[in-house]
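Feature request, filed as a ticket because there's no other form

It would be nice if the structure record came with a short human-readable summary line next to the tokens. Right now we just get the raw output. Example of a typical job, pasted below so the devs can see what we mean:
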Amino acid sequence: MKSALVPLFIALSLAACKPQDPAPLPPEVNAPASAPVSAAPVSDGTSPAADTATADAAAPTASSETVAAVADGEAVYKKACITCHGAGIAGAPKLGDAADWGPRIAQGDALLLEHAIKGFTGQKGMMPAKGGFVTLSDDEVKAAIDYMVAATK
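Raw output as currently delivered:
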């Protein structure tokens, strides 16, 4: 009896990760990575320090770009990745599980991204290409990976 339940459980688990028609992403995920920055106002030459402050305020900072990338990665994770990576289905490393993510992170970002985009079957389980959400862009997949890796550290 128990031997019949194991294949059934595995089949049901894999069925949960099958490719699905993805729901539309929130607008902030589909938005371009960075909006064009308008030119700084022309100065009358009376205050060079004021011109520098204006230019600095108009330029995006690295931390604001990082926050946007993390927010996009979180949105993609919640839309496409949480089913498997939230529960560890089909051998998926759970979000925040350093023991599961550690060896994968040690192989490098490029291999992690390749496996997520193209799909991968390993000793512990399998990763469908783009988690079955084939309409995700490579950048969205990368943002989700970055979010999951950051949540592990």
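Something like this underneath would help us a lot:
The chain has seven helices and two strands.
Residues 80-153 form a domain with the Cytochrome Bc1 Complex; Chain D, domain 2 fold (CATH 1.10.760.10).
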